[in-house]
């Protein structure tokens, strides 16, 4: 194990609980896998001790028995564009269920002819996520661009203007719900979490204890119960005649829940700022808000970008829970697709597909957050 | 006037003012929400208060540790749900820890293949939502063959769409006594370990701690078991008609939830274990070697105590997460606390009370686990002078 893979600072260590940069596994490939010395590499990494030789052989045996059936099922014996009867006859996977049901899985019950709209909204959205990942674009205009994209998404999804027909949001479903819930909840939770974290660090006992109470309450209960609360109790909170729809209620629940977790991440950043910074600001005669906005937060928030991305990943996964309060997200849509009697035997294909969707989003984001972390630590290493 | 200005400029007075404003604002919003809720509830003719807990629940619960019938009260139904939550969480914590530690260590293996296998497992499991994994496990459980064509996993253990059937011991009074002897033996072993350490520290001479402790754990229960006539009989599950008879079983819901929670959490625990071990500088191992310690001693006396210090805090939050995640049981129909509370709330309409109770119970569980782990953490924490 290379020593370089030991996290250098406690902050990096704390962050590594969430997403450990996987340098260790890279380090076990000590540049030896060149075309010249594959045998030397194998000898050092696969057959260096007797126990390792046995383990390697066991691994090869597992691959030997597992890979051919999987390849056969996924590729060789699979039916790509057949009918369900052809699928039943075949030994492999039935990918034609995806071909038949992909519109349902992606867009749920959105009117079929209008489904280019959620498609465009999702495409815009994913493009925007990609743009936001590039550090050169981290400029104030990015916030404006996001606002524009979100408005465009709203227009596309709801319609009712520019000659688009109106689609009520109880018809929405699938990927747009998953994407929108996760992005909106993290965006709305972010300012709230900063306030909560500042409140938790405050020297005023009443403010501190209320913030601590809220954070610990939200972190102590499961998201399911928060979503139940949001879906059944929020309507009771409102004065008579005012109603909010299911989607907004779930969004509110998710936002409050995410804010509590995010507040703890922000607090980590606040605590990592040396006390001298705050004292220097005091010495300059800055007030609390000047000190916070000009000195503390710019440094703290830069530090917590990786944990925020990690929180976004778990928020993205957590949106799948809204199916429990009756919203039609990607997972619900996938489950509905498996209930069609004609295609009922082919549930595995649908779940593999839905799982792959989630996996692609989460894995790429987690790799991105590891890269960010390495970038952030680049100058700290001596 | 100038005194007032002076007072307003003092940080202390301002602090009180801000707090008063904040608290009264919170109270005002809270009061507004509560009054709205009360109006809405009275408009809908829903009763308030916890009186409903003593009424008859009227619904069946599929599996229960206590004897429960539909004629029991809502309170009892919720206790049954709570026990189900605790059962599945406790078992899953054990499985997840074992699997997680194994995978975490495997990922650090000097064997490239083993490391890759572990990495693939971790990256797959962590990047797919738990709910999706649970649904998949549950679907698999449901589409297993019927009991008549059940899979015999190991002899006399059957897996079918009715769940997992396994043999049990036929109960006998001797078992209880043997169990009691086992507990006494464990207490004895703890005392022996303590005495051995003290003996070594005061005299410097080694004490055969391990053999003595093992003997204390193993010998008494075996002796009692043999003395009571070695009552040894299995209750084997046998297929009769359409279902099994004999043995014990766990439901498909429980099995799916257990597998899903264990596998998902193991992915996270593996990463925690890995970073904990990596956090111990290699110099520590070298120093141990220089002192002439054996590899086993280095692991036990040098590496593990330091790694545990890093591992325990995030591990606590994973155990907490697992317990909270067990609430996803509601999606696959395992009667846990959330699912029972949900049914009760739907039947009585007393949503506020039900959700509040559910949240309080989870908070208490969280505080208990956090408290226990904090205690343990203090025990393994660095002693600084």
From TrEMBL, chain A:
Keywords per UniProt: Cell membrane, Membrane, Transmembrane, Transmembrane helix, Transport
Coiled-coil annotated spans: none
SUPFAM superfamilies: MetI-like (SSF161098)
One GO BP annotation of this record: amino acid transport
Topology in membrane: Multi-pass membrane protein
Domain ABC transmembrane type-1: from-to ranges: 175-369
Transmembrane segments: 53-75, 116-138, 145-165, 177-199, 220-238, 350-368
Top-level taxon in the UniProt lineage: Bacteria
Subcellular location: Cell inner membrane; Cell membrane
GO MF term (any one): transmembrane transporter activity
GO CC aspect terms: ATP-binding cassette (ABC) transporter complex
Protein family membership: Belongs to the binding-protein-dependent transport system permease family. HisMQ subfamily.
Record protein name field: Amino acid ABC transporter permease
Lineage of source species: Bacteria, Pseudomonadati, Pseudomonadota, Alphaproteobacteria, Rhodospirillales
Automatic annotation (TrEMBL), chain B:
Gene Ontology process terms (BP): amino acid transport
Keywords: Amino-acid transport, Cell membrane, Membrane, Transmembrane, Transmembrane helix, Transport
Transmembrane segments: 16-34, 77-105, 176-195, 207-234, 254-277, 289-312, 354-376
Signal sequence range: none
Record membrane topology: Multi-pass membrane protein
Cellular component GO terms held in the UniProt record: ATP-binding cassette (ABC) transporter complex
Residues in ABC transmembrane type-1 domain copies: 82-373
InterPro entries per UniProt: AA_ABC_transptr_permease_3TM, ArtM/GltK/GlnP/TcyL/YhdX-like, MetI-like, MetI-like_sf, PMP3
UniProt subcellular location: Cell inner membrane; Cell membrane
Main subcellular location: membrane
GO molecular function, one term: transmembrane transporter activity
SUPFAM superfamilies: MetI-like
Gene3D superfamilies associated with the record: MetI-like (1.10.3720.10)
Record has 4Fe-4S as a keyword: no
Annotated CDD domains: TM_PBP2 (cd06261)
Pfam annotation, one family: BPD_transp_1
Record family assignment: Belongs to the binding-protein-dependent transport system permease family. HisMQ subfamily. Belongs to the UPF0057 (PMP3) family.
Name the UniProt record assigns to this protein: ABC transporter permease subunit
Organism whose genome encodes this protein: Azospirillum cavernae
């Amino acid at each position: 194990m290379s020593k370089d893979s030991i996290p250098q600072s406690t902050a990096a260590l704390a962050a590594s609980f969430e997403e450990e940069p996987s340098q260790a596994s890279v380090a076990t490939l000590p540049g030896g896998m060149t075309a010249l010395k594959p045998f030397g590499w194998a000898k050092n990494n696969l057959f260096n001790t007797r126990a390792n030789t046995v383990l390697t052989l066991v691994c090869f045996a597992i691959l030997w028995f597992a890979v051919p059936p999987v390849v056969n099922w996924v590729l060789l014996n699979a039916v790509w564009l057949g009918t369900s009867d052809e699928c039943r006859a075949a030994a492999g996977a039935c990918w034609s269920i995806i071909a038949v049901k992909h519109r349902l899985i992606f867009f749920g019950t959105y009117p079929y002819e209008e489904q280019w709209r959620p498609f465009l909204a999702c495409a815009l959205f994913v493009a925007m996520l990609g743009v936001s990942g590039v550090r050169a674009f981290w400029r104030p205009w990015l916030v404006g661009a996001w606002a524009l994209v979100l408005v465009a998404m709203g227009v596309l999804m709801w319609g009712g203007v520019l000659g688009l027909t109106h689609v009520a949001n109880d018809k929405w479903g699938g990927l747009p719900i998953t994407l929108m819930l996760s992005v909106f909840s993290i965006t709305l939770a972010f300012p709230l979490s900063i306030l909560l974290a500042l409140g938790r660090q405050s020297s005023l006992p009443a403010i501190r204890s209320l913030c601590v109470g809220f954070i610990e309450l939200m972190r102590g209960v499961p998201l399911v119960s928060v979503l139940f609360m949001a879906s059944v109790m929020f309507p009771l909170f409102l004065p008579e005649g005012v109603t909010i729809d299911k989607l907004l209620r779930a969004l509110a629940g998710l936002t409050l829940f995410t804010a509590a977790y995010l507040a703890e991440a922000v607090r980590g950043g606040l605590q990592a700022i040396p006390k001298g910074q705050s004292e220097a600001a005091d010495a300059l005669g800055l007030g609390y808000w000047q000190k916070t906005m000009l000195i503390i937060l710019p440094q703290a928030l830069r530090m917590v970008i990786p944990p925020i991305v990690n929180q976004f990943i778990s928020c993205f996964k957590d949106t799948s829970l809204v199916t429990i309060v009756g919203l039609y997200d990607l997972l619900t849509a996938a489950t509905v697709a498996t209930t069609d009697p004609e295609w009922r035997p082919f549930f595995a294909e649908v779940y593999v597909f839905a799982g792959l969707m989630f996996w692609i989003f989460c894995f790429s984001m987690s790799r991105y957050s590891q890269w960010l972390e390495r970038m952030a630590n680049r100058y700290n290493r001596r | 006037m100038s005194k007032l200005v002076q007072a307003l400029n003092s940080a202390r007075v301002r602090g009180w003012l801000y707090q008063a404003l904040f608290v009264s604002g919170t109270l005002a919003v809270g009061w507004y929400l509560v009054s709205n809720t009360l109006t809405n509830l009275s408009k809908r003719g829903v009763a308030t208060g916890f009186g409903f807990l003593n009424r008859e629940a009227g619904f069946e619960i599929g599996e229960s540790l206590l004897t429960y019938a539909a004629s029991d009260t809502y309170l009892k139904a919720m206790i049954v749900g709570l026990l189900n939550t605790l059962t599945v969480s406790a078992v899953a914590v054990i499985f997840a820890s074992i699997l997680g530690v194994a995978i975490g260590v495997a990922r650090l293996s000097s064997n490239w293949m083993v490391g890759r296998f572990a990495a693939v497992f971790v990256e797959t499991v962590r990047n797919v939502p738990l709910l999706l994994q649970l649904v998949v496990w549950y679907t698999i459980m449901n589409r297993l063959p019927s009991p008549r064509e059940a899979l015999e996993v190991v002899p006399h253990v059957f897996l079918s769409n009715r769940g997992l059937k396994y043999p049990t011991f036929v109960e006998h009074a001797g078992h209880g006594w043997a169990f009691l002897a086992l507990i006494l033996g464990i207490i004895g072993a703890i005392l022996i370990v303590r005495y051995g350490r003290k003996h070594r520290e005061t005299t410097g001479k080694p004490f055969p701690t391990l053999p003595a402790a093992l003997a204390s754990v193993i010998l008494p229960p075996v002796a009692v078991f043999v003395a009571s006539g070695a009552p040894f009989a299995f209750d084997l599950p046998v297929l009769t008609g359409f279902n099994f008879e004999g043995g014990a079983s766990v439901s498909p819901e429980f099995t799916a939830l257990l597998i899903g929670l264990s596998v998902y959490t193991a992915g996270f625990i593996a990463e925690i274990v890995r970073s904990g071990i990596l956090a111990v500088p290699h110099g520590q191992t070298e120093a141990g070697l220089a002192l002439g310690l054996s590899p086993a001693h280095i692991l036990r006396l040098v590496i593990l105590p330091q790694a545990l210090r890093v591992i325990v805090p995030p591990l606590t939050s994973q155990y907490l997460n697992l317990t909270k995640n067990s609430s996803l049981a509601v999606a696959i129909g395992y009667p846990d606390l959330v699912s029972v509370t949900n049914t009760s709330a739907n039947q009585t309409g007393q949503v506020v009370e039900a959700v509040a109770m559910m949240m309080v119970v989870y908070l208490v569980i969280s505080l208990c686990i956090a408290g226990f782990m904090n205690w343990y953490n203090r025990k393994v924490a660095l002693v600084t002078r």
